[in-house]
Amino acid sequence: MDTLELIRTFREVAARGGFSRAAKTLDVSKANVSKYVAALEAKLGTRLLNRSTRTISLTDAGSLLLARSTPLLEMIELTRDELKHHARQPSGRLRVTAPVGLGSSDLPHFMADFMQRYPEVHISLDLSNRVIDMVDEGVDIALRIGRITDANLIVRKLRSIDMVVCASPVFWQQHGLPNHPDDLGDYDALTYSLIGSNPEWRFLVDGEVHTVSVRSRMDATDSSPLVHLALQHMGVVWLPRLLVQKHLDSGTLQAVLPEYGPNDLWLYAAYTQRRHNSAALKALLAFLEERWRID
């Protein structure tokens, strides 16, 4: 038996004024109660109770332990109740990381809706394109586009990612429209830094994965500056549709080669544990699945 349980047994003996009454309250044998108190005294190296054939009384050490253990056990009980509440009712802080580009997508709107539904949950959202160690940095959920190779993470598909090749209408008027993914090698491309100094874009041609080497005019660690330059007629981007949808809708960017888009990219939610997850984490995963499946 751990020390806290031994202390609880001792406190029950002190409160009830005897081993028999404490044993009845705790629903254990009198012999066990006596053994537990003796074990606690052995752990602490001091006698806690004065015993006679008829009565018990607290020693000075016993009185000190009784007084000092009261706030400790109250704090433990309060913490236990709060943890049970976390397990049942979405509440507390959730730390979420996502690519910077998702900050310009529906994600902030979804977070607002989620917090209105669950007012006891606080979201800490870290927008970053770097690969992090979720355990070391205390992150509950990581949203990622593409493949997640860490075998220690549990991943859940949220939505399929439609990749689009697009540029401004002015750019296409100046340089002509491509007819095939291979034609993209002749255009100035605006690329992610993370795909390296020799960037390749992936397509699906005749049911097979087909990569095209592109000539990068500028690379960046995030999509925002790439989109900005594309709007200034500086080149072609290959990005998730959800990051450029508003520009496609407004006509400031024009997509090409839609029939060659890859179909194996997903937006994932990754987390580290399968069991004993908080109610807030479970609720956010379900909420994002629901919203992105609809949208």
Describe the structure.
The chain is of the alpha/beta class and 295 residues long. The protein is rod-shaped, with a radius of gyration of 31 Å. The model has no long low-confidence stretch (mean pLDDT 87). It folds into 3 domains: 3-88, Arc Repressor Mutant, subunit A, CATH 1.10.10.10; 92-161 and 265-294, Periplasmic binding protein-like II (D-Maltodextrin-Binding Protein, domain 2, 3-Layer(aba) Sandwich), CATH 3.40.190; 163-260, D-Maltodextrin-Binding Protein, domain 2 (3-Layer(aba) Sandwich), CATH 3.40.190.290. The longest helix is centred in the N-terminal third of the chain and has 29 residues, at 60-88. The protein has a 5-stranded mixed beta sheet, covered by helices on one side. The chain contains 9 helices and 14 strands. Helix 1 crosses helix 2, helix 1 (3-16) packs across helix 3 (30-44) and helix 2 (19-26) crosses helix 3 (30-44).
Which tags fit this structure?
3 domains, 295 residues, D-Maltodextrin-Binding Protein, domain 2, five-stranded mixed sheet, Arc Repressor Mutant, subunit A, alpha/beta
Radius of gyration: 31 Å
Q: In CATH's first tier, which class of the largest domain applies?
A: Alpha Beta
* Tally of structural domains: 3
User: What's the end-to-end separation, in Å?
Assistant: 53 Å
Distinct helical segment count: 9
Reported for the largest beta sheet, the result is: 5 strands, mixed
Which geometry do the CA atoms define? Answer: rod-shaped
Which residues form runs of ≥5 with pLDDT under 50?
none
Using DSSP, what is the number of strands?
A: 14
Quaternary state of the chains: single chain
Order of helices and strands: HHHEEHEHEEEEHEEEEHEHEEH
What's the pLDDT, averaged over the residues? Answer: 87
**What share of residues are in beta strands?**
25-35%
CATH superfamily of the largest domain: Periplasmic binding protein-like II
Strand order of the largest sheet: 4-3-5-14-6
Task: Write down the CATH topology of the largest domain.
Answer: D-Maltodextrin-Binding Protein, domain 2
CATH architecture of the largest domain: 3-Layer(aba) Sandwich
Tell me the helix content.
40-55%
What would you call the structural class? alpha/beta
